[in-house]
Amino acid sequence: MSRNTPKTTDAIAIIHRRHYANRPDREIALQEERANAEIARKIYDLRKAAGLSQRALAELVGTTASVICRLEDADYEGHSLAMLQRIASAVNKRVEIRFVSRQTALRPA
């Protein structure tokens, strides 16, 4: 820690500073993981709000429950726009995509 870095007891800030700060490759990987987790969480939340089981959503979307299970897994990296649109349609929603500046996206949560 440099002399100009304020002391903190915030564990997230400490981990970010030690393992991610000033390491663009790690920060990009972290953002990708956050995006995957956010998509998985949104699919889960949409399904639950619609009162659907994974099997019921799968039937509406034209896939299997195991595919829905994978899509709701934060470690899954294969989300496709087509599948997200099918899920959105099944729960009477639409997909909206935004592009944000990297500066904003790379700040620690």
List keywords for this structure.
109 residues, 434 Repressor (Amino-terminal Domain)
Q: What can you tell me about this protein's structure?
A:
With 109 residues, the protein is an all-alpha fold. The protein has one domain: Orthogonal Bundle (434 Repressor (Amino-terminal Domain)). It has helices spanning 11-19, 24-49, 54-61, 65-71, 81-90, 102-105. Helix 3 (54-61) crosses helix 4 (65-71). It is elongated, with a radius of gyration of 18 Å. The mean pLDDT is 88.
Characterize this entry briefly.
By secondary structure, the protein is mainly α. It has helices at residues 11-19, 24-49, 54-61, 65-71, 81-90, 102-105. The two termini are 20 Å apart.
Strands, helices and their partners?
Elements: H1 11-19, H2 24-49, H3 54-61, H4 65-71, H5 81-90, H6 102-105
Helix pairs in contact: 3-4
Instruction: Please identify the structural class as seen in this structure.
Output: mainly alpha
Coarse morphology = elongated
From the N-terminal CA to the C-terminal CA, the straight-line distance is 20 Å
Q: Remind me, CATH topology?
A: 434 Repressor (Amino-terminal Domain)
What does the radius of gyration come to? Answer: 18 Å
| Second rung of CATH, namely the architecture | Orthogonal Bundle
Average pLDDT over all residues: 88
Strand proportion: under 5%
Q: How many extended strands?
A: 0
Low-pLDDT stretches are: none
